[in-house]
Design brief:
mainly alpha; 3 strands
């Protein structure tokens, strides 16, 4: 089986998808990414919105209804969850192989 051309995900994209398991608007996504990454990944608004636009085009995330018309809210799609799962499995494989070699 060949690997999807969108894999591996960048660290930023991985955390954005993970953050959107629950719907969120832009500022909340930035906060969640920083929290999930233990402060290792911090994004400027321009970086986030460029990534969001690309992820919508790829159908990894989608806009969802929001009670606040001033904010766009996004959620991960089934395709996005699958990409997140595949990248997670890829990283786990790398970790296991490395553990076995570095014992």
């Amino acid at each position: 089986m060949s690997r999807d051309k969108n894999l591996p995900l960048t660290e930023t994209v991985y955390y954005i998808l993970l953050a959107l398991v629950e719907p969120a608007h832009g500022y909340l996504i930035m906060q969640k990414v920083e929290e999930l990454s233990g402060g290792q990944v911090r994004m400027a608004a321009g970086t986030l919105y460029g990534a969001v636009e690309n992820l919508v085009k790829l159908k990894f995330i989608q806009p969802v209804q929001s009670e606040d018309s001033r904010r766009k809210v996004y959620s991960i799609t089934e395709k996005g969850k699958e990409m997140l799962r595949l990248d997670f499995e890829r990283m786990n494989h790398m970790i296991e192989v490395t553990k076995n070699i570095l014992k």
